[in-house]
Amino acid sequence: MKNQAGSGAIYGLGILGALVYFLQHSTSFLDGFIGIFKAIFWPGVILYKVLELLKM
Fold it and tell me: Do the domain assignments include residue 45?
């Protein structure tokens, strides 16, 4: 059985980087709260758009 944990690590780093970005640019508690949800879903949206662009 192959171990495919590398992609999970990349996705995790994407979430962490997005979380830092969105929290640094938040000006209120609500902006920070919304930033947490954006950080979770943003890497998935980017991956979807890239695969759509590559027609996969």
Answer: yes
Query: What is the model's pLDDT at position 4?
Result: 61
Length of the chain: 56
| Number of separate domains in the chain | 1
Q: Tell me the residue range of the domain where 21 lies.
A: 6-53
Rounded CA gap, 49 and 29, in Å? 29
Task: Pick out the chain residues at pLDDT < 70.
Answer: 1-7, 56
Q: Is 49 exposed, middle or buried (0-12, 13-18, 19+ CB in 10 A)?
A: exposed
Q: Is residue 1 part of a domain?
A: no
